[in-house]
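Example 3.2
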Amino acid sequence: MNAAQDGKYRLGVDVGGTFTDFALTEHRTGRIISHKEPSVPSDPSRAVERGLATLLEVHDLAPSDIELIVHGTTLAVNAIIQRRGARLALVVSQGHRGILEIGRARLANSYDFTVKKEQPLVPRNLVFDLNARIMFDGAVVAEPGPDDLDALAEKLRIADIDAVAVMLLHSYAHPEMELAVAEGLRDRLPGLRVTASSQIWPERREYERCSVALMNAYVQPLMEDYLDSLLAGVRGLGVDAPIYITTNNGGTLSLETARQRPIDTVLSGPASGVVAAMAAADSAGATRLLTVDIGGTSADFARIEGNLPHYTTQTQIGDFPLVVPVVDVRAIGAGGGSIVWVDPQGVLKVGPESAGADPGPVCYGQNGTRPTITDCYLTIGLLNPENFLAGRMHLDAGAAEAALVGIAEQLGMTGPDAARRAADAALRVATAMMSTELFKSLAEFGEDPRDYALMGFGGAGPTHANLIAEESGIGTVVLPPSSSIFCALGATLADVKRDYIRSDSIPLTDSARNALRTRFDALTKEAQNWIASEGDIIGSARFEASLDMRYEGQAFNLGVVLRPELLASLDLDEIREGFHREHEKIYGFRDFDSVIEVTTMRLRVVGAVSSVTFQRHAVAAQTPKPAAHRSVFHAGRLHDVPVYSRDMIGTGGGFTGPALVEQADTTVWLLPGWTACADEIGNLILTAPTAAEARHDG
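Structure, written as tokens:
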């Protein structure tokens, strides 16, 4: 396939709680066509099929014009959080049936002794132990025979389950017995989905490894059905393009790999937005960037340093730990669909409950009765009710205002501006929540948000980003073109990626180089075999490596990235220095007397997909002229605000707030005193007033 062929398009799709976003990118020109389709929670593939059909028809495209479809979905993560996955069983080594109840033997909240313990994905009566045990050094203590597997298979058959996970002790280092048990169950129970923990994520710590395997098994039937439905819908439109699924690490996987490893896709949507942000940041010259993706349900925050996202291996999916590498995205329940309410003590609250796609915000006219952030935007004047989604959807301003009058009454607000004041107050509450999350997440790394630029995207990101920046003391805001479908756009820009891991205990003595080389060679061979099977769209492949290390006797590790040259040489002195430096950065000291121990080797394979270049915009001859004016209620009073069309702002075109910038899929709110200027790819860059200007404006 020639990915750069004229007239060929890539389609990125991101299924959200309220809308399903589409980004169609053309290689030849870098042109981006955006589209939003209301999501169908009961069958998300219907929105994908409907939106694709609309794009083909409206833009007069032949099915063969689509060369690649890359799709992100929240189906798996929602299934885990909402507990609507498969009926599971778990097989463990004898004596370990309590693994899910014991977990890490920690309270979810050390200060609240009334908090309820999380409910495991597998009830105790469906956890089966097996006389199967390998020690940490590979010594076999007990090995199940055919009769043992026959008896276990009969118990699983009687239990009438959809899937089973197998997690034997020390299988991260010695997987042979676990794999044999899994294969034996597949032979005895044809059609039953069997997940071996060592095939999904072979990392030490049995509870975490077990959780990853269980979550994979829990969502696999649901994801397989969805992917089958998606494939049938796309092929039914005559589109034969390969379909890839976005992943937690900011990459993509083939449809077949996603069927086997749905756990790699659970947090893929937010990660794709970060991929697009890195591409747009190049043009804006922002090397330290915070991103905020505000959709219908949540506000998702991430950090980019030197055009690389921050990753983590310590995150949660609902009640369960997820230890696979993911782009570090922090989310709070404050999106455009988040419900505004007043608690019994008379305190104004926003979220975390969302109106979703059905019924949606009150102004959508779908029988919603509880006001949301979107209703607040409309009531204070930020949104044009006649031009929402380029006029495809009419908003009911009267219904939104009436719903907010109810909130105002609960707060004791009266008068003709009561609904506006309640809406303004709700937006300030939401802004405070988002800014607090920024400060909290950055404080863990000793960082200050004022040292970063903020990039806003998602349907409500451009509308709310300036409010967050002003509250947080951030002086620069970058709002990319097509920002409301940015996660879908990021999907079209992502390379194919997968992570591999080996856990071991290797002291960094002089003999460690050979041990590290042996393990990295094995990981590399496994990664090469996989990437070769992922399809024709992949060009060259590269490898990214890191080591988890600690001083001997410590309980937790620090990660050290190995540059390609260091991966080739495995210079032990340089590796030791890298760990000392990282430890000193976090804890303030080095311990030269302790032996450094490698506990985990990580390797990521990246299969390059031909890049898409953003379309360049013409240089503006003059300052753009407003297309209209609108009254906006802000900071307790009405402002007469000019409204600009995003399409009419050329490179270098600038103006000062207060101002609104409308485009087909979102609205930008520029605060009083801030200035806006467009760069060559259409990023709208907002700059805070200087201290003197701010005093004068006040």
